[in-house]
Amino acid sequence: MPWKETDAMDLRTEFAKRAMREDLPFAVLCREYGISTKTGYKWKQRFIEQGVSGLADRSRRPHHSPNRVSALEVCDILRIKHDHEYWGPKKVHEVYAKNHPDSRHISLNTVKRLLDRAGLVEKRPRRRRAEHCGRISMPVTASQPNDVWTVDFKGHWYTADRQRVLPLTTCDACTRFVLMAQIVPDAGTQTVMQCFIRLFEQHGLPKVIRSDNGAPFASTSAPLGLSRLSAWWVSLGINLDRIEKGKPYQNGSHERMHREIALEVEGRVQGNIAHQQAALDAWRHSYNHERPHEGIGNMRPAQLYRDSDRKYVPEQQQVEYPLGYLTRKANKAGCIKLYNRLLSVSVAVSGMTLGLEHLRKGNFNVWFGILNLGSLDLNTEKFTSTGGRVYALNEDHHAISSN
């Protein structure tokens, strides 16, 4: 049982006394209390040396802080702010540095922190910019392998016996290495997810995945266009980059790769799905290992590509949040429970852990990883997505939305 904040001293005292009796292997006793053996030996030694009083928490304040700001320096900074009430930390910092050219350097962050502690920094509400179900960040430039993977479906075609051939393709944006060209039975979330699991197991995880706004990569009805698939990517620590609607040239290298498939494979192979896949596999090997690519100095993609150092670990799909955030796990319907109230966020994040940043009484920012999904108002029991859509629950506890 891990330490509880309200009775930590009682638990430590109980642990120390049991450790002194030595009627149980020490490692087993530590596991029982949910602590490491290193921590266990620490509390035991303190109990031996100081008794129960030695089990209290000690101050983490350093004994010596050579860079600590002096009282005189604090007064000088606050005096500048007092003389110029509407100046921000940047201006205060600039004037202080000019007035004290021979003194040691005090950083801008230090000035910001001092003014904030003095209550002299106005808290401005975060401006919410309505975003379309498209690019949720600035375009990402791939300078190394696995910085950015691009993904899309190649337009389908049919075999002679009317079997639908739908290739799912993934490419490394930096090296142009085609990671996957897999014919799939459908474009469903589970189908695509299984393909990516195999891809992650083989090559590791990228930093960013770039896609268009179509299903299953995005959803027009969810905050920030999140889908079940893209939310899963975020839970693995992968950032999202979506091209803007109607602008396929923003994923130009991937579209050119699809043109190569259209020219060299589509309609040129006889036989069933297995024959089509064999032709795609042969084309991918040629594209990666034999074909010189002008975009990478006429080198072959396989000469430059290497697997990611970020390994895929299915068990590590837990998003972490800063200290002080409340965490809630969304249920299957995409709802979270807060202070005995059930609030709908999005089915896209069902099973995922969300972080709630407290703004003011009854109001929270809702975060999923680094993504700000929207705001939550306990007074109205409504969640407003970043894009402006309002979610609430009706009397039957079903999610409804209104603009």
How would you describe the overall organization of this protein?
- The structure is a single chain.
- The protein has 403 residues and is an alpha+beta fold.
- The protein contains eleven helices and 16 strands.
- It has helices at 8-21, 26-32, 37-50, 71-83, 89-99, 108-117, 189-203, 228-235, 252-264, 273-289, 301-304; strands spanning 148-153, 157-158, 164-165, 167-172, 178-183, 208-211, 239-242, 326-329, 335-338, 341-344, 353-360, 363-368, 371-377, 382-385, 390-393, 399-402.
- It has a seven-stranded antiparallel beta sheet with strand order 8-11-12-13-14-15-16, with no helix packed on it. Strands 5-4-1-6-7 form a five-stranded mixed beta sheet. A two-stranded antiparallel ribbon has the order 2-3.
- α1 (8-21) packs across α3 (37-50), α4 crosses α5 and α5 crosses α6 (108-117).
- The radius of gyration is 28 Å and the shape is extended.
- Mean pLDDT is 83; it is low at 391-403.
